[in-house]
Design a protein that fits this description.
single chain, 390 residues, Helix Hairpins, HSP40/DNAj peptide-binding domain, Chaperone, DNAj Protein, Chain A, 4 domains, three-stranded mixed sheet, 10 helices
Length: 390
């Protein structure tokens, strides 16, 4: 861990950089050190992996918060992280690179083709999808199930994803000879560009499938049963492998990433795993002491209120907070701020009884009032002295 560079240093950004700034910085570093641009350069390959690892952490709000607090130790074995490898739905550095630049990104398109590298005509993985899901506070804190419907592309059943009408086949593109790219320019200045005839596929279809019109996939609406884990918070992501867009030419489907957005609650407020709430306490319990019942995420809980409790006092109910979704065990606490409630709508008889009680009280029963009066007295004494001197 001591040899690992700071992730912010790796990407060349400050520790208060925005998500867009982090992404732009990663794109710049990743393009500079991408293995396809630096063939055989082991140092460049390691720099590419280092940048991808840094981006995976800093682009994830949960991991970034843990890194900001504990540094690399947060992801050491036993530290609750991913042990220095790639987690959160990414298998390697190239996986992250494709997520940032898009599943169809070709490094040769960006750097000019470099040596006539042939585009793959075989199966291609489908694009990943993102679905933003609004959930209630209760669903996020306690967990629930939800059925969602989303438009996706799935492999065409008629042509099995080939794009060609059954009984026919694809042909090598006559323009690019199957390379997917054509060269332009002359002399010392030459560059490669996507073949205009086959669109970079390297193949053409003489008899397109009548169902998908040669695309290899069809649009459909997919219903998915989703489990919302207890403890998710706004910005949390859930990866559903193989639920993204259909692959090309029989390739595997991409993944679906669910991004949660938690609605606020009128009573409970959340900060990490801890929950905060404000509860009224009848004035007689605050004065004499007693017990009240406080609503928690997990049911009612008894809270002992000592005699003489004042408004603004905070009590802690341990283990009554949100479940730790990241580690799969443990819960936060609930912090209860008390607000002393005085009675209202008293009858004449009740007011007389209350007045009789109040008549028995003196200044020494009210410590805060006594303290305020002493402070004010000192102030006025000093004021009179200053006025006399002037």
């Amino acid at each position: 861990m001591a040899d690992k560079r700071d992730y912010y240093e790796v990407l060349g950004v400050s520790n208060n950089a925005s998500d867009d700034e982090i992404k732009k910085a990663y794109r710049k570093v990743a393009m500079k050190y991408h293995p396809d641009r630096n063939p055989g350069d082991h140092a460049a390959e390691e720099s590419f992996k280092e940048a991808s690892e840094a981006y995976e952490v800093l682009s994830d709000s949960d991991k970034k918060a843990r890194y900001d607090q504990f540094g690399h130790q947060a992801f050491a074995p036993g530290g609750g992280g991913f042990g220095g490898g790639f987690g959160g739905g990414f298998h390697d550095a190239s996986d992250i690179f494709e997520q940032v630049f898009g599943g169809g990104f070709n490094i040769n398109d960006l750097f000019g083709g470099g040596g006539g590298r042939r585009r793959s005509n075989g199966p291609a993985r489908g694009s990943d999808l993102r679905y933003d899901l609004d959930v209630d506070f209760e669903e996020a804190a306690l967990g629930s199930h939800r059925t969602i419907t989303l438009p996706v592309s799935e492999g065409c059943g008629r042509c099995n994803g080939s794009g060609a009408e059954p009984g026919t086949s694809t042909q090598t593109c006559p323009t690019c000879g199957g390379r997917g790219q054509v060269s332009a320019g002359g002399g010392f200045i030459q560059f490669s560009q996507t073949c205009p005839t086959c669109g970079g596929a390297g193949e053409t279809i003489s008899s397109p499938c009548v169902e998908c019109h040669g695309v290899g996939s069809v649009k459909t609406r997919q219903k998915l049963k989703l489990r919302i884990p207890a403890g998710v918070e706004s910005g949390s992501r859930q990866r559903l492998p193989g639920k993204g867009e259909a692959g090309m030419r029989g390739g595997p489907a991409g993944d679906l990433f669910i991004v949660f957005h938690v609605r606020d609650h009128e009573f409970f407020k959340r900060n990490g795993l801890d929950v905060y709430c404000e509860v009224p306490v009848p004035f007689q319990i605050a004065m004499l002491g007693g017990e009240i019942e406080v609503p928690t995420l997990h049911g009612g809980a008894k809270l002992k209120v000592p005699a003489g409790t004042e408004s603004g006092k905070i009590f802690r109910l341990r283990g009554q907070g949100v479940a730790d979704a990241a580690h799969g065990h443990g819960k936060g606490d609930q912090n209860v701020l008390v607000n002393i409630e005085v009675p209202s709508h008293l009858s004449g008889k009740e007011k007389k009884a209350m007045q009789a009680l109040c008549d028995q009280l003196h200044d020494n029963h009210f410590e805060l009032t006594t303290k305020m009066k002493k402070t004010a007295q000192k102030f006025y004494e000093r004021k009179r002295k200053l006025e006399a001197e002037s």
